[in-house]
Structures are given as structure tokens and as C-alpha cells.
Amino acid sequence: MKIGDKVSVLDEDIFGIITAVSKDEITIIDSDGFDYQYYKKELVLESNDFSNLTISPENILEIISEKEQKKNKGIPKVKSKDKYLPPMEVDLHIQQLVTKTRGLDNFEMMNIQLDTVRYKITFAISKKIQRIVFIHGVGEGVLRYELHRLLKEYEGQLKFYDANYQKYGIGATEVYLFQNKK
């Protein structure tokens, strides 16, 4: 490659004319007058004369392997086993959370249940557990309403929906936690 040759840049839509050549770097100017510097291996000589073009199967395989190495570099592989793990189940019935309910009013029982939800979500995030099923029962729907109101506070960190009807009936909510894979 020499000054005045027309070149194009690999992996970019830039064409230009060589204006300067140093050891490994070549400076080109594009049609808009912008200067760019590239390594020789990043440029392709534009020529209508294909007689000096030597492409062999080895060259093609070498180019493909270089591209694949660059493409896969630094991308962590994510294992899909998480979607097959059973969800963590949390029964929010007050009898499952405390030994005695005598002396507790409805407000205190609700706070115990919602504190349990907060604790279990924090625990699941710290242990990278992606799914939790909160079993709240049917009843009058007050616990379900409060549970959904609490889960809306975690906007962007989780999504929730009715759990599997065949397994839990209509008295459960499943929570999917978005986990950062690092």
C-alpha cells in the first residue's frame, strides 16, 4: 500500500485514499475530508485489477477464525438451567410464620406477612434465586392486594403474575426476579 491508493476499511463502511504511511499505521482521507488512522491489516486495497488477488481456502479460514475470536471475546456464557429450577415457595399463611396468633390484631399479622415477603425477596436476590411463589390463599383478597402493592415498589427489579393454577389454585402469586449476570 502506498500514498494515493484507494482503500476500504474492514468492518466499517469507510472508503478513502491513503495520505500517509508509517510503520503499521496508514492515514486515509474519505470523500468528506475526514482523516482516519488504521493498521494495515484493517484496510483492503480497492482495485479493479484482480490478477494479484490471492484468496485461498486457508486465507478464508484464517479470516473467519479471526472474526469469531473477536466476536466471542468477553461475552460470558449464560447457562439456561435457571429456567428449569423449581421456584422458592413461601407460604404466607400466618400459622406458618408464627407459633401463636393470640394477641395479634389483623394489622400486626399483615405486617409480619409483608416483612416476610421483603426478607424473602432480599434473600432471593442475594442468592441469585430467580423465581419465588408466594402462597397467600384466597380469603377476602386483602393479603393478595397488599402483596401486589408491595411488589409494585420493586418496579424494574421483578415481575409478578398469578402462579400455576393447576399446582396452587388461585391463591398464589409467582415473582420472577431479574438477576444481573456478572
Notes on the structure:
By secondary structure, this protein is α+β, with helices and mostly antiparallel strands. It folds into two domains: 1-47, SH3 type barrels; 80-177, 2-Layer Sandwich (Ribosomal Protein S8, Chain: A, domain 1). The chain contains five helices and nine strands. It has helices at residues 57-72, 94-97, 106-126, 142-152, 165-168; strands at residues 6-9, 15-21, 25-29, 35-39, 43-45, 88-91, 131-135, 158-162, 172-177. The radius of gyration is 31 Å and the shape is rod-shaped. 12% of the residues are buried.
Taking all residues together, what is the mean pLDDT? 81
Structural class of the helix and strand makeup?
alpha+beta
Number of beta-strand segments: 9
Strand content: 15-25%
- Give the tally of structural domains: 2
Order of helices and strands: EEEEEHEHHEHEHE
CATH topology group of the largest domain: Ribosomal Protein S8, Chain: A, domain 1
Give the overall silhouette.
rod-shaped
- Give the end-to-end Cα distance, rounded to a whole number of Å: 44 Å
Task: Give a brief description.
The protein is 31% helix and 24% strand. With 182 residues, it is of the alpha+beta class.
Q: What would the keywords be for this entry?
A:
Ribosomal Protein S8, Chain: A, domain 1; alpha+beta; 31% helix; 2 domains; four-stranded mixed beta sheet; SH3 type barrels; 182 residues; 9 strands
